[in-house]
């Protein structure tokens, strides 16, 4: 009887221990039978990423991209004027020289004429200098996303147009005095001659819609030609802010102190439209099966083959309190090409 009680006591006191050993053994056997994947289980699912682009209603997108108050090249120093060593981004190709048909209307046009390795284009317009001088922030964004706004998009020609820059505080101006002051010669990068002694060249960027009647009809203002306005040899120690930062209308025929001094060149307008992807000059362009070259951006890189799907929400005047309107549901970008 004592032997039976001893066996019973031993079994009862060790039952939990043995049961845990049995369970553990079972778990070891089960775990050895399962192959643990080395990649996430969802990585083999063939579903493209989706992106909803939200375009904010920020009027500052229509300011100049290079405002002479920032560090463009990241060297810790402010870049307060054009620097030939910097590659400026914009609608123009910094490695090309351009000619203009000297028109300031809807037909004005920059066309590529030659290549350049150092950015200099004596007697012509340097693409790098034009990017610095004429690019707005929205132009840079459009160029990144889809290659720029195509005003003309035909089988024989592609023309990009600079954004609409209201004829007010959104417009901007820059000046050039001489090589000592600015660090480069203006006649190396434009068809312009060096300024006369003690004078400056003034440059303004605007859409000339200062007349009220110009903006009565919808889209009439925004369809007006975007301009690069030039006044050469401005003397009397006048500065660019007297022309570009005065009471409206800015960048017109007068300075804040009155008329331009005697000897100032006549007003010259050059429409900021640029021909791209030509038969001779097609850097950063894509050749399509129909034999045409067209400008492209990130949306083409990631959207044409449905590597990513994109949608778009923008602000609107009629839905300004509820966030805007859905312009495109997330879907394939291929129907936009």
Quick take:
The protein has 337 residues and is α+β, with helices and mostly antiparallel strands.
Q: Any overview of this molecule?
A:
- With 337 residues, the chain is α+β, with helices and mostly antiparallel strands.
- The protein has a domain at 60-276.
- Helix content is 19%, strand content 24%.
- The protein contains 6 helices and 17 strands.
- It has helices at 2-32, 127-134, 137-146, 179-182, 241-244, 298-303, and strands spanning 50-55, 96-100, 110-115, 125-126, 150-153, 158-161, 172-176, 200-207, 226-234, 254-255, 258-259, 268-271, 273-276, 285-287, 293-295, 309-314, 325-331.
- The protein has a 4-stranded antiparallel beta sheet.
- Strand 10 (254-255) and strand 11 (258-259) form a beta hairpin.
- The radius of gyration is 32 Å and the shape is globular.
Structural class: alpha+beta
Beta-sheet strand percentage?
A: 15-25%
| DSSP summary, beta strand count | 17
Spell the H/E element sequence.
Answer: HEEEEHHEEEHEEHEEEEEEHEE
User: Strand arrangement, largest sheet?
Assistant: 7-8-9-12
Shape: globular
Distance between the first and last residues' Cα: 95 Å
Rg measurement, Å: 32 Å
Poorly predicted parts: 18-30
- Helix proportion of residues, in percent? 10-25%
């Amino acid at each position: 009887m004592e032997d039976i009680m001893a066996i019973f006591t031993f079994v009862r006191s060790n039952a939990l221990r043995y049961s845990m050993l049995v369970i553990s053994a079972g778990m070891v056997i089960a775990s050895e039978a399962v192959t643990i994947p080395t990649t996430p289980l969802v990585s083999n699912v063939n579903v493209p990423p989706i992106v909803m682009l939200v375009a904010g209603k920020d009027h500052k997108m229509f300011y100049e991209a290079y405002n002479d108050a920032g560090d463009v090249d990241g060297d810790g120093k402010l870049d307060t004027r054009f620097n030939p060593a910097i590659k400026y981004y914009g609608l123009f190709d910094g490695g090309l020289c351009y000619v203009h048909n000297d028109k300031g209307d809807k037909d004005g046009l920059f066309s590529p004429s030659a290549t350049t390795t150092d950015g200099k284009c004596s007697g012509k317009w340097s693409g790098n200098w034009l990017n610095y001088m004429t690019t707005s922030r929205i132009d840079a964004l459009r160029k990144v996303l889809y290659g720029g706004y195509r005003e003309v998009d035909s089988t024989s020609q592609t023309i990009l147009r600079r954004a609409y820059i209201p004829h007010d505080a959104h417009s901007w101006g820059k000046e050039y005095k001489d090589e000592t002051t600015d660090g480069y010669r203006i006649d190396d990068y434009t068809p312009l001659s060096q300024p006369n002694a003690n004078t400056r060249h003034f440059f303004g960027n605007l859409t000339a819609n200062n007349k009220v009647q110009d903006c009565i009809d919808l889209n009439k203002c925004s369809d007006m030609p975007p301009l690069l306005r030039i006044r050469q040899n401005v003397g009397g120690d006048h500065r660019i802010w007297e022309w570009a930062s005065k009471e409206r209308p800015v960048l017109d025929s007068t300075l804040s102190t009155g008329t331009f001094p005697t000897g100032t060149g006549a007003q010259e307008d050059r429409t900021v439209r640029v021909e791209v992807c030509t038969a001779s000059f097609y850097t950063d362009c894509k050749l399509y099966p129909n034999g045409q070259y067209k400008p492209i951006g990130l949306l083409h890189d990631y959207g044409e083959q449905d590597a990513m799907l994109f949608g778009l929400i923008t602000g609107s005047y009629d839905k300004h309190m509820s966030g805007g309107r859905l312009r495109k549901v997330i879907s394939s970008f291929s129907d936009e090409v």
